[in-house]
């Protein structure tokens, strides 16, 4: 994504070390999770046709055909296919949430 | 609706990451300018991705939602300082200005992308110079590796410093060889050198020239990243073909092929990352409660705190006929 590309560029340019980049990514994961938990309150429903499912290492992967998301604002979003990657809801996230 | 909140959230994340990582940068002895550069790069990439309307809510005058082409992106830089720490963005260049001529060009408003890209290259180039000075008398290994090296002169990290010694060493060896008759002991090392030299002289002669005309002559940054990357980049276009060729006999079952195709196609672009609270199935009805996720669909990002998913699944669904 945008961050990793930027980090790549900086690593390539010698401005930062890969180790530092990893720290940044770790921080990003943490910050993203925190921020989402704190600031995002919206609810969404999703319906669709389940094409593929798998559970591996506590990570669910679904491939849903013709998903339709119904946002809180009654906004509908459709797509031909979507992949859902869901990690187990970790304690840390859960703790922050409740 | 959940798309509207995306910019604010992303900003918050960026700010938090940058803020939280600052001590790490200090610990690693990396200057604040680099951190600012990272932030600037990151933000501009996020904005350029158009995942959401990045009209900053706080300062309305600033940053009109960037149009899909580059120049607006560039124009949006000036407004940014008002809301973010973008002033820093200028700092790296200011620092560079002491050494490198290009920064003024950037300030004069050269077309956005090239200007932005050229400068960092310059900085690397200089960095590379510093690094490479010590290894000049480098070992033959470097020369032996020469053929594998991309001819890009962009001096960068230590990796590229391999390239530098090579360049300098090759000409020197080329010059010295005729000068003295090589004792038999030396012949072996020389033969190892000789191979690279077939390619080398042209390469090195190019690069001998290139140091003086710096960034402008460089390919776009992506063309000359650190050494491993070009190597990785080269096979990339082929890799799908290769991997298919290799795998087809062994482990590609029919269904797997389909799935690969499915996932590799549209599925890659539309994706949801989230956590799950529970996933339950009754017969072919699946219900799952997803939490704290981001949906990337149709080029837009959406965030949700909770998402109830209901899917039905037919066992035959993997057969394309049922699509």
TrEMBL record, chain A:
CDD domains: TFIIA_gamma_C (cd10014). InterPro entries: TFIIA_a-hlx, TFIIA_b-brl, TFIIA_gsu, TFIIA_gsu_C, TFIIA_gsu_N. GO terms for biological process: transcription initiation at RNA polymerase II promoter. Residues 47-88 form the Transcription initiation factor IIA gamma subunit C-terminal domain. It is found in: Nucleus. Keywords: Nucleus, Transcription, Transcription regulation. The keyword GTP-binding does not apply. Residues 1-36 form the Transcription initiation factor IIA gamma subunit N-terminal domain. Gene3D superfamilies: Transcription factor IIA (TFIIA), beta-barrel domain, Transcription factor IIA gamma subunit, alpha-helical domain. One of its GO terms (cellular component) is transcription factor TFIIA complex. The keyword Transport does not apply. Pfam families: TFIIA_gamma_C, TFIIA_gamma_N. TFIIA is a component of the transcription machinery of RNA polymerase II and plays an important role in transcriptional activation. TFIIA in a complex with TBP mediates transcriptional activity. Belongs to the TFIIA subunit 2 family. This is Transcription initiation factor IIA subunit 2. It comes from Candolleomyces aberdarensis.
Automatic annotation (TrEMBL), chain B:
The keyword Nucleus applies. Residues 187-203 have a biased composition (Low complexity). Residues 56-71 have a biased composition (Pro residues). One of its GO terms (cellular component) is transcription factor TFIIA complex. Residues 249-265 have a biased composition (Acidic residues). SMART domains: TFIIA. Residues 164-175 have a biased composition (Polar residues). CDD domains: TFIIA_alpha_beta_like. Residues 54-84, 138-266 are annotated as: Disordered. InterPro entries: TFIIA_asu/bsu, TFIIA_b-brl. Transmembrane segments: none annotated. It comes from the Eukaryota. GO terms for biological process: transcription initiation at RNA polymerase II promoter. Keywords: Nucleus, Transcription. It is found in: Nucleus. Belongs to the TFIIA subunit 1 family. This is Transcription factor IIA, alpha/beta subunit. It comes from Candolleomyces aberdarensis.
């Amino acid at each position: 994504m945008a961050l990793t590309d930027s980090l790549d560029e900086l690593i390539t340019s010698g401005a930062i070390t890969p180790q530092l980049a990893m720290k940044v990514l770790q921080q990003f994961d943490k910050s993203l999770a925190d921020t989402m938990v704190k600031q995002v309150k919206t609810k969404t429903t999703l319906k669709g046709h389940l094409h593929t499912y798998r559970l591996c290492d506590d990570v669910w992967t679904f491939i849903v055909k013709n998903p339709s998301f119904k946002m809180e604002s009654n906004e509908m979003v459709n797509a031909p296919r979507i992949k859902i990657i869901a990690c187990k809801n970790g304690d840390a996230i859960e703790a922050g949430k409740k | 609706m959940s798309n509207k909140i995306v910019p604010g959230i992303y900003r918050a994340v960026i700010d938090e990451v940058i803020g939280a990582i600052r001590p790490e940068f200090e610990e690693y002895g990396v200057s604040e300018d680099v951190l600012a550069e990272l932030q600037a790069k990151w933000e501009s990439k996020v904005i350029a991705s158009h995942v959401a309307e990045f009209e900053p809510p706080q300062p309305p005058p600033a940053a009109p939602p960037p149009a899909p082409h580059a120049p607006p992106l560039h124009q949006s830089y000036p407004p940014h300082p008002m809301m973010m720490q973008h002033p820093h963005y200028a700092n790296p260049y200011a620092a560079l200005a002491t050494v490198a001529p290009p920064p003024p060009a950037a300030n004069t408003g050269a077309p956005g992308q090239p200007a932005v890209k050229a400068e960092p290259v310059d900085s690397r180039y200089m960095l590379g110079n510093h690094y490479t000075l010590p290894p000049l008398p480098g070992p033959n290994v470097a020369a032996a590796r020469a053929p594998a090296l991309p001819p890009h002169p962009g001096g960068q990290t230590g990796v590229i410093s391999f390239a530098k010694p090579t360049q300098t060493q090759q000409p020197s060896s080329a010059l010295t060889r005729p000068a003295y008759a090589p004792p038999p002991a030396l012949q072996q090392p020389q033969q190892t050198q000789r191979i690279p030299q077939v390619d080398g002289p042209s390469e090195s002669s190019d690069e001998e020239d290139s140091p003086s005309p710096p960034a402008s002559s460089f390919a776009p940054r992506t063309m000359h990243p650190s050494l491993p990357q070009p190597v990785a980049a080269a096979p990339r276009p082929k890799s799908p073909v290769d991997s298919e060729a290799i795998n087809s006999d062994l482990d590609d079952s029919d269904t797997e092929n389909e799935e690969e195709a499915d996932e590799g196609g549209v599925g890659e672009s539309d994706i949801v990352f989230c956590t799950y609270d529970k996933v339950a199935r009754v017969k072919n009805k699946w219900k799952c409660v997803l939490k704290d996720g981001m949906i990337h669909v149709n080029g837009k990002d959406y965030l949700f705190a909770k998402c109830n998913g209901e899917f039905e699944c037919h066992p035959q669904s993997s057969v394309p006929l049922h699509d």
